């Protein structure tokens, strides 16, 4: 198959940042995806409906002219989020989900949750108002090995959370382990999961063997080859509770190429193409449409997109860096090739 036409996909986990750089990144996603769940870990975090509404306006204004790209907003859950704020968010009609960052787990998560018990009323309100809880699933106890933080979260936090809130709809974000795949498969219908392109295509050797590669560093960190294989099997299985979430997470080059670099991989300029590579590698291109365009919308109870998008098998070389505010950003595959491209996309770098 040298060309693939699918229902226009959506990105169920995306970081766009804010300010000057918004317009530098949003067009990449808008060229590929109909909608995206926009993460709230700005500085300061998007903890109120008012802030989410204003961020949505800035995102709409930063889209390319004529784009129908629809940002679905999220609220950043804290220990002190009142149930009334959840109610306001649901009533606004623009907030789709609430995001749980365990405090300290990842980029800009300092205001995140320290004790889920303190969020009981807010979590009940999320379920009651039919919002979704999206979770960065890692424990943050300093003694827990970084490669074990996701697995620990499943048993110690996610299981009890699902039991305590029997109507809560949850998306476990950016799965990285075989254990997480098994947990989601065994979980209830109201538990969904996103998988990034980097976790389908790379393992921890790509981060650490033969030299440290800061542009392959994200959280949860890349795991073993057997984990990658389990993720790829899940994504290509046709199972409706696994769906696309790129977690494209831009950081300026200097913030990555430094003694203590930020976590986050920038994939927006080639995200769908990377998924096509991953699916193609196991002969599963026919399953890409379900994963990328159907399962997420169905899980969120939203209509599937009506437009279509065509990918062509034709290698394209990525530039070494792309403009990002007054600086530069290094996308995944910088200076190297990706095997697919969007048909008729003049903006492909
Ligand atoms: N994935 C990452 O490594 N980084 C994300 C945060 C997140 O999704 O955990 C970011 O905002 O930079
Ligand atoms: Zn995360
Ligand atoms: Zn993320």
TrEMBL record:
Gene3D superfamilies xref list: Metal-dependent hydrolases
GO MF, one annotated term: dihydroorotase activity
Pathway stated in the Swiss-Prot or TrEMBL entry: Pyrimidine metabolism; UMP biosynthesis via de novo pathway; (S)-dihydroorotate from bicarbonate: step 3/3
GO biological process: 'de novo' pyrimidine nucleobase biosynthetic process; 'de novo' UMP biosynthetic process
Cofactor: Zn(2+)
Binding site for Zn(2+) 1: 13, 15, 99, 247
Binding annotation for substrate: 15-17, 41, 136, 219, 251, 263
Superkingdom of origin organism: Bacteria
Keyword Hydrolase appears in the UniProt entry: yes
InterPro entries: Amidohydro-rel, DHOdimr, Dihydroorotase_CS, Metal_Hydrolase
Annotated Amidohydrolase-related domain residues: 11-305
Residue positions, PTM N6-carboxylysine: 99
Annotated Gene Ontology cellular component terms: cytosol
PANTHER family with a match to the protein in the record: DIHYDROOROTASE
Family listed: Belongs to the metallo-dependent hydrolases superfamily. DHOase family. Class II DHOase subfamily.
Function: Catalyzes the reversible cyclization of carbamoyl aspartate to dihydroorotate.
Subunit structure: Homodimer.
Protein name: Dihydroorotase
Species for this entry: Sediminicurvatus halobius
């Amino acid at each position: 198959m040298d060309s693939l036409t699918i229902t226009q996909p959506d990105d169920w986990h995306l970081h766009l940042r804010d300010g000057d750089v918004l317009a530098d990144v949003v067009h990449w996603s808008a060229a590929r995806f109909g909608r995206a769940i926009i993460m709230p870990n700005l500085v300061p975090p998007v903890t109120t409906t008012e802030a989410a509404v204003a961020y949505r306006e800035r995102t709409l204004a930063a889209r390319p002219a004529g784009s129908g790209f629809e940002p679905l907003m999220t609220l950043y859950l804290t220990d002190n989020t009142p149930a009334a704020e959840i109610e306001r968010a649901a009533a606004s009609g623009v907030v789709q989900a609430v995001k749980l960052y365990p405090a300290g787990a990842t980029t800009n998560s300092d205001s995140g949750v320290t004790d889920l018990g303190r969020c009981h009323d807010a979590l009940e309100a999320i379920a009651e108002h039919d919002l979704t809880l999206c979770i960065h699933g890692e424990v943050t106890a300093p003694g827990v090995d970084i490669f074990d933080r996701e697995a620990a979260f499943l048993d110690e936090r996610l299981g009890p959370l699902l039991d305590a809130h029997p109507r809560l709809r949850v998306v476990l974000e950016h799965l990285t382990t075989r254990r997480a795949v098994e947990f989601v498969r065994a979980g209830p219908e109201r538990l969904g999961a996103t998988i990034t392109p980097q976790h389908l295509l790379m393992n921890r050797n790509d981060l650490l063997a033969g030299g440290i590669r800061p542009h392959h560093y994200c959280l949860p960190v890349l795991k073993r080859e057997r984990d990658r294989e389990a993720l790829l099997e899940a994504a290509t299985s046709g199972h409706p509770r696994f769906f696309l979430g790129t977690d494209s997470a831009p950081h300026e080059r200097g913030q990555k190429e430094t003694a203590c670099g930020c976590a986050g991989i920038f994939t927006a300029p080639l995200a769908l193409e990377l998924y096509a590579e991953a699916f193609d590698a196991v002969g599963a291109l026919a399953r890409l449409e379900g994963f990328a365009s159907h399962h997420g919308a169905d899980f969120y109870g939203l209509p599937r997109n009506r437009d279509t998008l065509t990918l062509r098998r034709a290698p394209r070389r990525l530039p070494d860096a792309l403009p990002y505010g007054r600086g530069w950003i290094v996308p995944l595959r910088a200076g190297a090739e990706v095997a697919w491209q969007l048909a008729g996309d003049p903006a492909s770098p």
